[in-house]
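Morning - magnesium ion inputs below, output right after.
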Amino acid sequence: MTMASRQRVLVIDDEKINLKVISDILREDVDVILAINGEQGVRKAVELQPDLILLDVLMPNMDGYETMTHLCHDVRTSAIPVIFITALNDSSHEERALLMGACDYIQKPLYTNIVQARVRLHLQLTKQRKMLEELAHIDPLTSLANRRKYEDVISSEWQSAIEHQECLSLLVIDIDNFKHYNDCYGHATGDKVLKQVASVLASQVNPGEGLVARYGGEEFTMLLPRFSQHEATKVAHQCMSEIEHLNLCYHHGGQTGQVTVSVGGATCYPQSSHLLSEFFDRADNKLVQAKNTGKNKILWDVSDKLDVPVK
Ligand SMILES: [Mg+2]
């Protein structure tokens, strides 16, 4: 989590004395990044992703408004809140800045308390917005990514795989006979099983190498960019064996059963003519087939052999 680290404020002003004054006011609370003109400011905003930008209106060459336009038109910087700073005592400038999307406006001369209060307020809002965004992508029970996050990530990985002609593997994983387990021990214990299985799945993928998500109910997805079928199958086997080692038993119909999972998998080299939904369906169909033919197994979709690009 990035929440614990100090927040960063980028100050863009053409006068060194102003940069110094503002930086003296803020540096106790935050890390201050300085830029002496609009071009440098835009570049540093893209590179360093500050939490807030303080932007001087009157600057030679690229003024504050033009700088703001650049920031707004770049997806990498458009969400960063901007406070305009100027000596202009004219409400039309204030209005123009706010209409352009500035979150606030501070007039010179700068009063330490006012600058601090406004900066703190907007940093607090930024922090809350980021936390809400993170929460909106996490499954509260298992702490895995939720389905929404999975959909976001697979879309971007799919595009990236098309661009770089790389392969993409997908596992759809479902806990076998989960209903029996719930019926036997109740939903609270069922939730514990979901957590344990989730934690095993998460432990099999290094962060940055893939994404494990709770797709819904007792179904999970594991997205493995750049994993060949062989590599992804290995991960799937590892998951199955670790889950078996959890040794979670239940009684059903006079018999003792153990928690296992079924896995459907698919690997492809996505191309712009392919449909992402079909790729998911191929893995999901294999999961259904695994479920219908005895469970506790991996079935892999192999209809993609011809899609391997000739390099
Ligand atoms: Mg100026």
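Note: The radius of gyration is 26 Å.

O.
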